[in-house]
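ugh ok fine here u go
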Amino acid sequence: MNGETQAVSLLRGELQIVVAASFFLFISLIALLIAMVLRRRSSRLLIWVGLWSGMFGFSQLFRSQAVVAALPASFVPACRLLIVACNYLIIVAGTLAFLELTLGVLRRFVQVQLIAGIAIAFGGITCYLTKRPENTFLILNLWLAPMLLAILLVTLCVPALSRRFLVLARHRVLTVGTLVFSAEALWANIARPLNIEEPVTYSYICFAAFLLSVGYTGLEMVLIDERRLLSLDNELAIARQLQFSILPERVPDIANLKIAATYQPMTAVAGDFYEFLPIDEHRTGFLIADVSGHGVPAALIAAMIKVAAQSLNAFATEPDEVLCRLGSILSPHLRGQFVSASYLCIDTESRTGRYSAAGHPPLLWWRSSQNALARVESNGLLLGVLPDSQYPVCSLQFAPGDRVLLSTDGVTEPENARGEAFGDSTLEKIVRDNASCSAAELTQRVLDQLQGWHEPNLQKHDDITLLVIDVL
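structure:
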């Protein structure tokens, strides 16, 4: 009988081993592909199931003498090392899978088991590589697996424990799979001393049922996470609509002023805010604010600013009073967050302005008669630092053709691929170079420059709010 005929004969006798190994390798591939596509934290269980199934599949595949005989002789030592590594590390992959299912004290216990499994694997593989006996480590490994299985089974079967220590409230499929595998393992341990032969197919089927039940649980966790994220996205979409509703619907139509406003949140909801406080036909207040942080917490504080600003109309001609009262209203509710703000009151009849700020970027004032740009800083403490802070007021005398810019730091802080900030100097240059443009055109030029500066694949650093006011 030649070598090829012997290999075929061996393969026929070991067909169920090869088929079982192929099945577990296929399950491994599917689980890992799903986890790779989803890229969710909740898909980590699928990763461990994939590695678990793959290790078992490889260890079974190389048990086949026909498969080993078909390999080049130079591959045999590597195959033996792979079998040893899989035999030891399979318990580590299984423990990592259990870890994704557990909470509280049980999770910490499984973490201890994981450390023990890694130590045993390291010791066993090291003994194999150094050609020393590894029986001690094999025995330890054989004790560790039943212990983990027993803990999982008890937790699944006792409702009080499962509610307290498991991630999923519903785990019927996992419980059935664990019971089937545990029953088979128990019977195998009883049958072996009694010299009762058990077909190896049973152990393959029961382990496959267990592994598939864990994989099903992983998919269920991913679907729950997806539904949760979808619900969150819907809620954020509503929150975004509500936040835009608290901003002015349009810029006010004020004689001798031309106003352009832009607002671009970094996330679905943001902490930037601006408001117009009309006083009479000649006087209007312009409030702009930036809440520290991003997302929902910052957006909630921005909504509070809106409510607070509506109560400040009686003080709208006094910038220091507006900021002081705004800080007093917000301080009890900021919970460690801060707000920078600036307020400008313009009187178009006398062409004067009064300006004050609370830790905010400077006001930019283009003075057309002098063809020069001035930075106006009149800052006090951030809102929320002290409830009764005082804010200095700066008086401005405008001339026809003058221009004022109020912005948040999201305009100057974006970085390019080299980590360089857009910066105040770049913004000032754009204002100088576009002095003849309208307020709306200047706003668009700034946004275009920011878009070109910021790498498209990089996340925005901050929300962007810009008010441009032209004195006609």
